[in-house]
Amino acid sequence: MDSEERKQKLSRASDTADASLSKMDRRNKKKQKLSKSQVIASPSLSKKELQKAMKKQNAAALDLTRKVIITEARHSNFVFSPTSISAALTMMAAGNGSGSDKLNAVYSEIATVVFADGSASGSPKISMVNGVWVEQSLPVDQSLKDQFENVFKATFTQVDFISKAEEVRIEVNKWASEHTNGLIKDILPPGSVDSQTQQVYGNALYFKGAWKDQFEKSLTKVKKFHLLNGKQVRAPFMDRSYERQYITAYKGFKVLGLPYRQGRDGGTDRKFSMYFYLPDKKDGLDNLLEEMTSTPGFLDSHIPKKKVFVGDFRIPKFKFSFGFETSRAFEGQDKVLMYHKACVEIDEQGTEAAAATCLSIGGVPKMINFVADHPFLFLIREDITGTVLFAGQIYDPSITCRWYWG
Question: SUPFAM superfamilies of this UniProt entry (predicted)?
C-alpha cells in the first residue's frame, strides 16, 4: 500500500467517525449546561458552540456503545472507553488533515476539566496520555508536531518502522502498560505493526475512584445471578450498607447512581459517578439498550437526583477485561488498524478501570428494590460535562477476563 492510498483510507475512517458525531448531534437537542469556569476559550468556537459540540460527543459515545456491543459483545461481558477511542480518532484526524478547531476544542475541554488528576485532594486518580509514533523517513510537519505536543500533550517520536517494526510494537505496548498502572498489556498484538506502518496514534486512560459511601465488606455475600439461558451462577454481592441510595424507577427499568468521593480540585467543577441501568425483566437488557440509544438526551434525563429508601439492595462485585479490534465497530473503517483494550473492577471500596487505544495509521418514603442479579449495563461518567469514560454490560459476573482479537 502506497502512502497516498494509506492516507485516503485513514481519512475516510476519520470522516465516518465525524459523520456519526454529526448525526447524533441532530438527534440530540437537549441543552447541556457547563459552568463558566469550565469553558475553554477557542478562537473559532463560542461557549454555545462548544457546549453543542460537547453534547454531540457525549451522544456519540452512547451510539458507539451500541455499535460495539452489537458487533463485538452481544450477550457477553463487555467494557470499553469511548473517550479513549475518541481521543485517538481526534489525533488521527489532525494527522491526516481532516481535523478541525471544533474537535480540538472539545478535546481540550475534556482534557482540562475531566482528566486533571485530583487524587492529591481526595478525588479520583485519573490520567489520560497520548502518544504519536511516526516513521523516521517521512518528512515532519513542524506545525503538526507542535499541535500534537501542545494541544494533545502527546509524546511525538520518530521511529524506524521499516526495519524495527517489532521493536516499536513492544515499545508502544510498554508505554500503554506504564500509563495504565500495568492493567493494559499488549495493546498491539503481533503483526499489527510492520514495515509498511507509517504512524501509530495511542491513548492510555486510567481511573481509580473511591465510593463516597463505601460498602461494608462484612455484608458482602455470595448470591445467585440469573443468566439469559435460564441458568444461574453464584457471585459475591455487595449488600445494603446504607438505608438510602440514588435510585430512580422508570417504566421498565431502574437507574442507580453511585458517586465517587470528591475532594477540592482547585476550583474545577466536576463530579464522577458510576451508573447502573437495570431492566425490570431478566432478559430486558437488549430492549433497554435500544431505548437508551434511540432516545435523544437519554443519559441526562435519566439521572437519579435524590436519595430514596431502599428495600432489597445488592449489586455484584466484578472484575473483567475486554479487547477488540475497534475498526469492526465503524462502517467503512475495515481497513484501519485500530485496537482497544479496557478493564474494570468494582468492590466495596470503589472502582479501578483502564483503557488503551492504538490506531495504526423520595410522607413515608417509598422503598425501591435494586437487585442487580440479572444482566445490566453500566457507565462511569463525569456528570458536569457528561463525558462517558467507560461503558459496559454484565451478563455473567463470574467471568473475569475476555480479550478478543480477530
Answer: Serpins
Cross-strand pairs, 226: 232
Domain boundaries in the chain? 3-210+322-333+336-344, 217-317+362-403
Q: Are strands 350-360 and 199-210 parallel, antiparallel or unpaired?
A: antiparallel
Q: What is the DSSP letter of 123?
A: S
Strands 78-80 and 388-394: antiparallel
Quickly tell me which residue has 467503512 as its cell. Answer: 332
Cα separation, 280 vs 254, whole angstroms: 7
Cell matching residue 364 = 413515608
| Cell numbers linked to 178 | 506504564
Residue 7 has pLDDT above 70, yes or no: no
Give CA–CA dist 106/123, Å, rounded: 23
The pTM (predicted TM-score) of the whole model is 0.80
DSSP code at position 216: P
Of 81, 107, 261, residue with least CA distance to 115: 107
pLDDT tens for each residue of 208-252 = 999 999 999 999 999 999 999 999 999 999 987 678 899 999 999
Q: How many residues does the chain have?
A: 406
HSE of 322, CA atoms in CB hemisphere, 13 A = 22
Which superfamily is assigned to 3-210+322-333+336-344 in CATH? Antithrombin, subunit I, domain 2 (3.30.497.10)
One-letter amino acid for residue 335 of the chain? K
99 pLDDT band, cuts 50/70/90, is confident
Which candidate, 321, 334, 283, 276, places its Cα nearest to that of 303?
276
The answer regarding whether domain 217-317+362-403 maps to CATH 3.90.226.10 reads: no
